[in-house]
Amino acid sequence: MSRPAIMINELDAERLDRLLEQPDYASLPVADALNDELDRAQMCAPEAMPTNVVTMNSTVRFRELKSGEERVRTLVYPAQMTDSATQLSVLAPVGAALLGLRVGDSIHWQLPGGTTTDLEVLELLYQPEASGDFRL
């Protein structure tokens, strides 16, 4: 399974670049993978973001393909993380994998410890840009 094309809101990309420059985050195992994703992403103005793309603060329903387990999480920055049952940090491996994917996309992603996962985006329950929240 190859990595699908991804699209990232320019404001999200700027915030993530600044976050990944901080020593506490730059040394995390997922930092390099997230930087790679930012480098390969198509950038888009918040106002032009398609409504089917996972952006920061989106609530997404996704499935882990090997187990079939479905989850619903809101993709957040680490400082916003308050509840792992409803939120997913963009600096968690699965969070980094979901950023920029479209509904229907699947991705094969490396996890810590050498394991991998295959994820599929099933539905966007909320996307800030689709709701007119361009600076969230």
From TrEMBL:
Give the signal peptide, or none: none
Recite the UniProt keywords alphabetically: Kinase, Transferase
Q: Which InterPro entries match?
A: GreA/GreB_C_sf, Rnk, Rnk_N, Tscrpt_elong_fac_GreA/B_C, Tscrpt_elong_fac_GreA/B_fam
Q: Does the keyword Transferase apply?
A: yes
Instruction: Cite the Transcription elongation factor GreA/GreB C-terminal domain residue spans from the record.
Output: 50-124
Q: Name one GO molecular function term.
A: kinase activity
Q: How does it assemble?
A: Interacts with the RNA polymerase.
What NCBIfam families does the entry give? PRK05753.1
- Tell me the protein's name: Regulator of nucleoside diphosphate kinase
**Originating species:** Kosakonia arachidis
Which gene carries the instructions for this protein? rnk
